[in-house]
Amino acid sequence: MENQRETLPVDALFVGGGPACLAGAIHLSRLCAWLGEVAEAEGVNVFCGFPGKEVLFSGGAVTGVRTGDRGLDAKGEKKGSFEPGADIQAAVTVFGEGSRGSLLSQVDEKLGLFSGPGQCFEAGIKQVLQIPPDSPLAAQLGTVVHTLGPAHNGAFCGGFLYPMAGGRAAAGLVAPLSPGRDIDLHQAFCAFMTHPYIRKLTGEARPVEHGARTLCAGGPYTMPRLCVDGAVFVGDSASMLDPRRLKGVHGALVSGMLAARAVFCALAAQDLSAKALSLYQRELFASPLFADLWRARNFHQAVSRPGFSRWLHIAAQEISLGRGFFDPLPRHKPAKKARKPGFLVFGSEKNQFYLAKNQGSSYLSREDGVFLSGTRHEEDQPCHIILRDPDLCTGPCREQYANPCTRFCPAGVYEVVESSPHGPRLKLNPSNCLHCKTCEVMDPFGNILWTCPEGGGGPHYRFA
Ligand SMILES: Cc1cc2nc3c(=O)[nH]c(=O)nc-3n(C[C@H](O)[C@H](O)[C@H](O)COP(=O)(O)OP(=O)(O)OC[C@H]3O[C@@H](n4cnc5c(N)ncnc54)[C@H](O)[C@@H]3O)c2cc1C
Ligand code: SF4
User: pLDDT tens, position by position, for the chain (464 residues)?
Assistant: First the structure.
């Protein structure tokens, strides 16, 4: 029957398209595409272009995922091309949606996955640069430059820069996220890229690709329950990133492989309970991966602290193999009130000077960044960013925080239109969205809900 929802039965469903589900200085997007081909050759069905929108439950067990509807217009009305999402009924579902997964949140809401205050996050911008053959960096293949800083509004950022084969280099900056702290990731990244030391190395490099993403950086103390009846959680979804070394691909791959083995055993034993699937958790906790994660268990909680105390904590952790002064180290409590934009400085006055001197007002505009990410969305579809209470934006959020979304979003999705006939209003540009999910983490009122847009939309990386 036309427009009827289809139900697809499968043994095991992996949700996500990153290394956690399909498998460094490698092209991760190409590796995942290649692994997808390998999986298909082995008889695995790879459903591309269909985001998982809703988790299906039967009692307290996960039974699969409903994919998103296609062909709805901006008002949510069905277009001629409408296709309802399908129900994929799986014996076991493996969630690998990356950092800040929306399906993970649904499972957490229903089954309670976290015993503590939940996960904590950092956000990063990464660029691929085309470097001139005569730039100093081109001659240093194999070298990785790490930087402490630039400082950004009291937040400690860490930068990296390394050359790759083919006359390219990767450059990036990562900052800890605390809701309430005024942060402008894009400006911090521009300050990093225009710092004289970085400019000396990159010379006349030209950015050819740009992207942003949050990282689930809290480590073992912020992991969810890894197994529930009918489901397991892998990769960044399950805090498998080592924030000390900014390594998450390895954690995603290893956790995905261990989960696959546990799922295979559970299917063979026809027991899909959390207890049967907990083989995954046991193997993970005994693995070298977990030893690395354990070493970094208090790292993010230290770096996200303000001022000099962070260095004391980090030094103590280095000496005591991750223990530090307190174990677990409580996370830094977010500021009660963010600064108004009049006080907003990115980095130091020096950084502002570098920006002005080297690149005019900015190294790269947010819009150019969006262009370089290859981001594409169907324009005529329901907005995938939901403001739970739009009045909060023009009321308390404007008064207390001066709409920080206009600064923390690296893609300029949030814009305040001052000259609207009914007073200032928040305008959304969802088709710019880089899918980094910084807004969900950083919104001081928890007013923003990020949902998956229609399948196939989002950044399309070629070199990263
Ligand atoms: C700036 C930066 C630099 C980094 N550098 C390194 C590095 O040098 N080395 C390293 O090891 N790690 C690095 N990382 C971390 C690394 O990228 C992540 O840890 C790793 O990609 C996590 O893999 P994942 O599969 O868990 O999640 P992801 O790579 O985030 O993949 C998740 C996938 O699931 C898809 N998805 C999400 N929701 C849904 C849904 N509902 N339905 C269907 N699909 C969905 C997403 O589109 C995405 O393709 C870096 C991260 C950043 C931000
Ligand atoms: S709207 Fe949110 S998810 Fe999209 S780019 Fe901006 S901060 Fe990132």
Answer: 456 777 777 767 776 666 555 444 677 888 888 889 999 999 998 888 889 999 999 999 999 999 999 999 999 999 999 999 999 999 999 999 999 999 999 999 999 999 888 899 999 999 999 998 888 888 888 888 999 877 777 778 899 999 988 889 999 999 999 887 788 999 999 999 999 899 888 888 899 999 999 999 999 999 999 999 999 999 999 999 999 999 999 999 999 999 999 999 999 999 999 999 999 999 999 999 999 999 999 999 999 888 888 999 999 999 999 999 999 999 877 655 555 544 333 334 444 444 444 444 468 899 999 999 999 999 999 999 999 999 999 999 998 888 999 999 999 999 998 877 778 889 999 999 999 999 999 999 999 999 999 977 899 988 76
- Which residue's alpha carbon is nearest to atom 4 within ligand 2? 433
Q: Which ligand is closest to the CA of 248, given by its number? A: 1
Whether cis (ω within 30° of 0) applies to the bond prior to 136 is no
> What are the boundaries of each domain within the chain?
7-118+219-293, 121-214, 298-338
C-beta 384 within 6 A of ligand 2: no
Q: How far is the CA of 212 from the centre of ligand 1 (A)?
A: 10
CA of 98 to the centre of ligand 1 (A): 5
Cα angle 213-248-209, degrees, rounded to a multiple of 5? 40
Protein residues whose CB sits closer than 6 Å to any atom of ligand 1: 15-20, 24, 51-52, 96-98, 101-103, 124, 126, 172, 174, 213, 215, 235-237, 241, 246-250, 252, 452
H-state helical runs in 279-348: 279-285, 288-295, 299-303, 309-319
CA distance 276 to 283: 13
Please state which CATH number belongs to domain 121-214. 3.30.9.90
CA–CA distance, 282 with 163 (Å, rounded to integer) = 38
Spatial contact of 397 and 445, defined as CB atoms under 8 Å apart = yes
In terms of C-beta density within 10 A (0-12 exposed, 13-18 middle, 19 or more buried), how is residue 155 classed? buried
Q: Do domains 7-118+219-293 and 121-214 have the same CATH topology?
A: no
The answer to whether domain 7-118+219-293 has CATH 3.40.640.10 is no
Query: Exposure string (b/e) for 313-330, b if CB count within 10 Å is 16 or more?
Result: bbebbeeeebbbeeebbe
Tell me how far apart the alpha carbons of residues 88 and 50 are, in angstroms, rounded to a whole number.
Answer: 11
Please answer whether residues 174 and 158 qualify as being in contact, where contact means their C-beta atoms are separated by less than 8 angstroms. yes
Structure tokens at 239: 């805090």
Across 59-192, the runs of DSSP E, i.e. the strands, are 61-67, 70-72, 78-83, 87-95, 121-130, 145-148, 158-164, 168-176
* pTM (whole model) above 0.70: yes
Rounded Cα distance, 224 and 405, in Å: 27
